[in-house]
């Protein structure tokens, strides 16, 4: 069986998630499309990188991302850095002929994302953006229902992504609150996950009308800009710096196929942890999903008799998407790790088969255009249209 060497850049939260997926993918998907080999890992210092290599099982380590991109044995470059580094690394990796998986959002702005999309298209490499939630089996099952026409013509989508890790004003000013590094706040960090789901399930978004708010205008400076996701609380008298991104976003959506929708994102909603939800209404039924109960899909069909019509709960398991590779009994539990393992499988399958994989950099670019439109709509207090992307998906 073929082995594919991976070079991972970024040994933080996402580095951990991706490393787990490389190790575990063949344990779930067997025969695997190819076996991932953890070749080289990069982090901000030589010490951090060496620790990452030991912890996550990589042969080599470096503090210079160019060594990863130029490594003759590396076939896949995995970009798990803060957002401001994505574009330069991706363009260099494409020029070196490497296949690429890049964490979301693809870039800080649509303009930056466009350069990345063009680079991978010109290089003819396989490219993927790590919007992992569409690979939750219950979400893929929702897509199956839709594609089979089980809920008829889609008329509306209501999506939310609500978290609370930044609700505490004393949680530090990590890179996620700085426009120069992150590009935007809740919009890019978590709103883009729901935009990906909306496009996956309903279709292209053609216009937005949004409101953004920044609730905590400054936060305590954090040593080294580390990404503590609300866990590190500073003393009240610590020096502070400005937050120049959105904390909260609400937008209306227009879809090209005539459906309408709404989307909300915040990291300041006390009590909400990873409340990524959608509710879809069609002419023949409805589907509801909540990631906090991710083994379940709620479905309701108009064709059910009036005396028994209502939502029923389907627990995902072996008969459902990816089910045979996962656990043998429904409701044993799908986790964040499994979504990353499935993502890794689909990427490797695309590489081995020399084929397209979604979401690719074209999707990432279009999502960046929608994000930019959301920022513009809030600033101008008006609807902003999003033209369709002329895509050449997946590979080249
Ligand atoms: C923080 O909001 C975060 O880590 C996001 O950046 C991830 O994409 C999300 O899946 C979990 O929350």
TrEMBL record:
Alphabetical UniProt keywords: Oxidoreductase, Signal
Entry keyword Oxidoreductase: yes
Domain GFO/IDH/MocA-like oxidoreductase positions: 141-288
Gene3D superfamilies for this protein: Dihydrodipicolinate Reductase, domain 2, NAD(P)-binding Rossmann-like Domain
Molecular-function GO terms, alphabetical: nucleotide binding; oxidoreductase activity
Chain intervals for the UniProt region annotation (Disordered): 223-242
Domain Gfo/Idh/MocA-like oxidoreductase N-terminal as annotated: residue spans: 4-131
The keyword Cell division is assigned to this record: no
Matching InterPro entries: Gfo/Idh/MocA-like_OxRdtase_N, Gfo/Idh/MocA_oxidrdct_glycsds, GFO_IDH_MocA-like_dom, NAD(P)-bd_dom_sf
Signal sequence extent: 1-23
Pfam family membership, one: GFO_IDH_MocA
Name recorded for this polypeptide: Gfo/Idh/MocA family oxidoreductase
Species per Swiss-Prot/TrEMBL record: Saccharopolyspora hirsuta
């Amino acid at each position: 069986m073929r082995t594919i060497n991976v070079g991972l850049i970024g040994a933080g939260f996402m580095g951990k998630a991706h490393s787990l997926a490389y190790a575990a993918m063949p344990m779930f998907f067997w025969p695997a499309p190819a076996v991932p080999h953890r070749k080289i890992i990069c982090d901000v210092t030589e010490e951090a990188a060496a620790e990452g290599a030991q912890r996550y099982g990589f042969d080599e380590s470096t503090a210079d991302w160019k060594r990863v991109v130029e490594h003759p044995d590396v076939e896949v470059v995995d970009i798990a850095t803060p957002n401001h580094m994505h574009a330069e690394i991706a363009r260099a990796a494409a020029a070196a002929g490497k296949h690429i998986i890049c964490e979301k959002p693809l870039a800080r702005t649509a303009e930056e994302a466009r350069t990345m999309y063009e680079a991978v298209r010109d290089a003819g490499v396989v490219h993927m953006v790590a919007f992992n939630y569409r690979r939750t089996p219950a979400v893929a099952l929702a897509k199956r229902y839709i594609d089979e026409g089980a809920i008829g013509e889609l008329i509306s989508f209501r999506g939310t992504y609500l978290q609370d890790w930044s609700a505490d004003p004393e949680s530090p000013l990590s890179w996620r609150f700085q426009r120069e590094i992150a590009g935007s706040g809740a919009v890019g960090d978590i709103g883009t996950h729901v935009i990906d789901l909306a496009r996956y399930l309903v279709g292209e978004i053609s216009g937005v009308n949004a409101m953004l708010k920044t609730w905590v205008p400054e936060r305590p400076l954090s040593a080294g800009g580390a990404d503590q996701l609300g866990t590190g609380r500073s003393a009240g008298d610590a020096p502070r710096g400005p937050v120049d991104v959105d904390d909260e976003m609400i937008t209306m959506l227009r879809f090209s196929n005539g459906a309408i929708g709404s989307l909300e994102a915040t990291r300041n909603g006390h009590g909400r942890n990873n409340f990524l939800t959608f509710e879809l209404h069609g002419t023949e039924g409805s589907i509801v999903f909540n990631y906090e109960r991710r083994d379940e899909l709620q479905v309701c069909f108009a064709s059910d008799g009036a005396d028994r019509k209502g939502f029923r709960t389907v627990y995902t398991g072996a008969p459902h998407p990816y089910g045979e590779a996962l656990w043998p009994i429904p409701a044993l539990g799908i986790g964040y790790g499994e979504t990353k393992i499935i993502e890794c499988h689909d990427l490797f399958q695309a590489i081995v088969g020399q084929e397209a994989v979604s979401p690719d950099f074209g999707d990432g670019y279009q999502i960046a255009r929608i994000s930019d439109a959301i920022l513009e709509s809030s600033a101008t207090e008006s609807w902003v249209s999003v033209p369709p992307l002329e895509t050449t998906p997946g590979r080249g």
